[in-house]
Specification:
The radius of gyration is 17 Å and the shape is elongated. It has a 3-stranded antiparallel beta sheet with strand order 3-4-5, with no helix packed on it. It has a 3-stranded antiparallel beta sheet with strand order 6-7-8, with no helix packed on it. The chain has a 3-stranded antiparallel beta sheet with strand order 9-10-11, with no helix packed on it. By secondary structure, the chain is mostly beta strands. A hairpin with a 5-residue loop joins strand 1 and strand 2. It has 1 helix and 14 strands, in the order ββββββββββββββα. The longest helix is centred in the C-terminal third of the chain and has 4 residues.
Length: 200
């Protein structure tokens, strides 16, 4: 499905109705839209007032009713895996919804996402957030990089940005070192080339 943002802030959708090709249920809310983001089968629109409207496959992020109260204002950007959304608010907090196995549930790291988040990156089914203090918080499917506990000590500070693959993440630190996690075979482990990645 597709969703086109018109210059007047309205939205036009087409394609598979079950995947967001129809926005009939939220059409009256799709005004003054600033930007549109998509998972594999749902859309989430940020309006000029910082509120969010979602539609499409409910299992893929099309239904944000469980967190509606947190999405009434203050949303700056939205990030998406294949089946979930993560909204970054202007106060540095994060709100998630969608498939719990794809990053839609961040309960285990909720306290770490209440403030200070600077940017969010995503693999196919996991998110990784970089905070203002250079630390990293990850959640979602472990096999896709949602669990960074094995390298937690290396992600406490100094991370500048993260590069995602389908099933893994690579964090670049201020000192030039790289920290990886996720599915080893798809980039989650850099053990074979670790010596070449050390700074001189």
């Amino acid at each position: 499905a597709f969703a086109a943002l018109r210059s007047d802030g309205s939205v036009v959708c087409w394609g598979n109705e079950l995947s967001g090709g129809s926005s009939a249920q939220v059409e009256d809310q799709l005004v003054d839209v600033r930007n549109i983001f998509s998972s594999s089968a749902a859309f989430a629109a940020v309006r000029n007032d910082g509120s969010v409207v979602s539609w499409g496959n409910e299992l893929m992020g099309g239904n944000s009713s469980d967190v509606r109260d947190q999405l009434l204002d203050g949303v700056s950007r939205i990030f998406a895996t294949s089946s979930a959304f993560a909204a970054l608010k202007v106060d540095g907090s994060v709100v998630t919804w969608g498939d719990s196995n794809g990053g839609g549930c961040s309960d285990e790291v909720r306290d770490q996402l209440r403030e200070g988040v600077q940017d969010i990156y995503h693999s196919h089914a996991a998110f990784a957030a970089v905070k203002h203090d250079g630390s990293v918080v990850s959640w979602g499917a472990a096999v896709y990089g949602g669990n960074s506990s094995k390298v937690k000590d290396q992600l406490q500070e100094g991370v500048l940005r993260i590069y995602p693959a389908e099933c893994a993440f690579a964090a670049v630190k201020r000192d030039g070192t790289i920290v990886t996690w996720g599915y080893p075979r798809y980039g989650g482990s850099c053990d074979a080339v670790r010596g070449q990645l050390l700074t001189e």
